[in-house]
Amino acid sequence: MDKLPKIAVPFIITLVFLIILISKSAVTIGPGEGGVLFERFGDGINTEHTYGEGFHIVAPWNDMLVHRVRQQSVSDEMNVLSVNGLEVKVNGTIWYEPEFSNLGKLIKTKGADYERELLDPAVNAAARSVVGRYTPEQLYSSKRDVIEQEILEEVTNLLDGQYLTVKKVLVEDVKLPPTIKDAIERKLKQEQESLEYEFRLVTADKEAQKQRIEAQGKADANKILSASLTDKILQDKGIEATIKLSESSNSKVIVIGSGDSGMPIILGNQ
């Protein structure tokens, strides 16, 4: 077997070195991710530029720190106190995202684990502040949407200028001690039954008023009709009816004399 030419050895060594260099320098940033450069022989993390999705070449002595920059969520259960000092458990979810252009500043000031270092304390502080304004009954029933909005506003204020944006807060569940929960549910049920009973009373009263109005209307109509029916009108109407009956081929009418009111008396017909 022939020996390799002397020039081939350094060529192969150079090629291997280049392959290793390229593999160390090539970085691919995936969808929904951003990268910041850690310059080992410079000032550390470069806060001036955030790298977007795609293929990038960096110096082999530098490192590319890749983090998700699209919207993401974190869920947690927090033990907080209501306005009267009762301990309740709140299950919630926070939707947030890092500011893409300030990703380097976020990591430099708060570290790569910025969620634990920055977001969690802010959310817990906001939840304690907001929940502490309400009674257990308000937390359990009617104030859920208001609480969510207030927590969002509190977190937004706490994270102002921290390069992290909270998009939405969802309070999924509020857990109360069983005795308190049962008492609230009984009270809510009684209030509902009371509202239903009051509705039935109002409905019955309206129906009674309607019947009284209809009865009064009929009475007024009869009164007006009675006042308009004089003896002369009744007599004329009776004569008209008698004439029509006498003209019928199927009837025999015998009229003799008249009644006390002057109306004809019909004795027989067919």
SSE arrangement:
Layout: H1 8-25, E1 26-29, E2 33-39, E3 44-45, E4 54-57, E5 63-68, E6 72-81, E7 87-98, H2 103-110, H3 114-131, H4 136-140, H5 144-158, E8 164-175, H6 178-228, H7 231-246
Antiparallel strand pairs: 1-4, 2-3, 2-5, 6-7, 7-8
What does this protein look like?
This protein is elongated. The chain is built from seven helices and eight strands. The strands form three sheets. A three-stranded antiparallel beta sheet has the order 3-2-5. It is of the alpha+beta class and 270 residues long. It has helices spanning 8-25, 103-110, 114-131, 136-140, 144-158, 178-228, 231-246, and strands at residues 26-29, 33-39, 44-45, 54-57, 63-68, 72-81, 87-98, 164-175. The longest helix is centred in the C-terminal third of the chain and has 51 residues, at 178-228. It folds into four domains: 8-68, no CATH class; 72-176, 2-Layer Sandwich (Tetrahydropterin Synthase, Chain A); 186-228; 232-270, no CATH class. Strand 6 (72-81) and strand 7 (87-98) form a beta hairpin.
Short description:
With 270 residues, this protein is of the alpha+beta class. It is 49% helix and 21% strand.
List keywords for this structure.
270 residues; alpha+beta; Tetrahydropterin Synthase, Chain A; three-stranded antiparallel beta sheet; 8 strands; elongated; membrane; Band_7; Band_7/SPFH_dom_sf
